[in-house]
Amino acid sequence: MKDTTEIHPIAAGELATAAGSAGQAIPPVWPLASSVAVNPYLGQTGERLAQTGARLARVAGLTVTMPRDWYQARVADGRIGDDDLAAALEASPHEGKPASLAALKEALARPERKPHALPTLAEMAAEHSGTDWPGLVADRISHWAASYFDDGQALWKAPKRRGAYAEWRAVATHDLLPEIHGLKGFAAHVAGAPETAEGAIARASAALGLTPEVLETYFHQLLMTMGGWAQYARYKLWQVELAGGTDPIMTEMLAIRLIWEEALFAQYEEDLIDRWERVKASHAKPLTPTSDLIVDEILQEAAERGAQREIAEMFAAEASERGKDRPALQAAFCIDVRSEVFRRALESLDPGIETLGFAGFFGVATKHRGFASDVDELRLPVLLNPAVSTVSGTPEMEEEDRQARFAARASRAWGRFKLAAVSSFAFVEAMGPVYAGKLVRDALGLTDPGLPDSPAPRLDPALDIDARIGAAETVLRAMSLTENFARLVILAGHGARVTNNPHAAAYHCGACGGYSGEVNARLLALLLNDREVRAGVAEKGIEIPDDTLFLGALHDTTTDDMKLYIADVDTAGHAEDLRQAKDWLAQAGKLTRGERALRLPRAGGAAGIEPRARDWAEVRPEWALAGCRAFIAAPRGRTLGKDLSGRAFLHDYDWTQDEGFPVLELIMTAPVVVASWISLQYYGSTVSPQVWGGGNKLLHNVTGGIGVVEGNGGLLRAGLPWQSVHDGEDFQHEPLRLSVCIEAPREAMSAILEKHAGVRALFDNRWLHLFALDDAGQMAWRYAGDLEWEAMAAQPATPRLKAVG
In b/e form, how buried is each residue of 70-105, taking b as 16+ CB within 10 angstroms? Predict the structure, then answer.
């Protein structure tokens, strides 16, 4: 190794800053039990798409847009018109953009250049020696990380007395595989490393001759090579930061990866030094988008403008009118795009049915413990901290709780016996035939996972009456539900019945932290049925009739069944309302299944939908949020009767009732941001599935109880499985950044963006598009960035928002 005493070491502060920035550039990934969508470009929202493309090309060889032929096809069939291309070209701020529309079209006709990441030292050593060093590094890090981060899957748990770096060193100093493969003295190299991660980074940086200019993208690249493990470490940091703390885990993960680079450089320095100097020089160059990346960003914007034209035409179409009489039924659903199909079907059955859209946690940010459980479930958006604690069941159910715990312990003990190293083979020999019946039932789809049916949730500890009144008023005003209440108001959370699916939580409610939404819906129903609460909100101007009953429910998005939690409330006097509601909900479910069956492979009509929830071999039980492309916050009258094809998040909002615009601020800083995470996760899993996608479901193995790997090892895979965006023949998600359409004064939206820099960056850098609807409900203004707006041309009416494909 070269004499490092001649190299001027980088200041500790610069190293710490660079390590911290690299960690922030990595998106988090939530564990499987509470999986939520995450924007894979979370660390790059301060820059535009072309700049992000330059960054990710350098560190991971990633593209950030679709292949050119994808855009060519849309130009050919008219989904992208010349006006869209010209407008996107004019809006581009890049100096190196094509000089004219004709030049842009010429660039479109040329094939794109495939990006190639700068090589790591592990990759250079592999090319020189013929040994797959990147594969070995990934394997050894994964082997350790699966044990270190294990969340209850392993029968023999690894100790976690110290941080990640210290625990890795304890393992790596006894790992013989690197030396067996030819990395001489690796164990001694690790043993001789500094005791702290910061010290290890400093030593390796000096040994590798790094300069401050190299650090930004080189450190980012090393964390990217750790795949989902770096993302899971980022999740751990996210949780600590959300509580106001700090954690060195990303620095420790970087130190682990950097020590491998240092060891390989020590062994192959003479052969790699010249090339390594050139690579470092490339890392030190400013990140500048190429002309190809600029063209790709313009084409992506043009595709989105074409889709926005269709949305504008939908708004221009004549809408159905909502009746002024008291509704026959009101039903509030999550803003989830799957709810749009069910809402439309339900409203079509009777003009007296009124539906509403609101974030699926229904304003109840709860840390919940299920019945007979001590596990805290954070049933709230991951951007928030819990505001209340709740539990299912009452103190009087102590005996039922005890019996349920005994049964759960016995089940866990039996499961561990079946899997234990000593007993597993004997168990299969002796007990295998006993499971034949279960195997047949599962194979035939005769086992029904069922919907959640635990005892009613309650606040624990309870809130005082003023707090309960304040919470009820806040939620009702946020829902724009302050008058003309129906006799029966259903609050429907959503979840999904699926079988043998590690990503089951991804089908649940993102606003509920990856859990199903019935707990939050039931809690709000109980709160709004409280007579003291009703009296309190009446004093604040919200009169709820004495005969109005709020009822929690759960919409199963896989089968489109609806479960009503009737046992939670006193239904005396509402027998006919409930009978009619059940009938309407059943009819709406049938209509929704028929529509969804048109997109699902092998569904064979509405009757083929329900069995998918029970089929352990079904890789596409539903499409979840594939196809999402719009977020609409406006009165329901603007979209009533219009077919949005399950592609829009629908949030009811009436700005005339929002004095001071606190509800608008909440919508733009919470539901819109959560929806952007969903949209961009689908976007990233479609355009860059090799890194941002979860891989092939058929090859998945759960590891650590937190994620999946493909096959019998390798890096943790984060993001959506391929089967979630592709049907085997074509994409079922069209990668378009979300168009946010809000009916509210532009000045109010600009003030909110000016106040919230992180949200503003999403719109200024085009990760989201923002539109203002006028008093007639038309898309009249486009947000142009820098708190400026531009007027839009009026659009002709069209009957529906076009479906994918």
Answer: bbeebbeeebbeeebbebbbebbebeebbeeeeebe
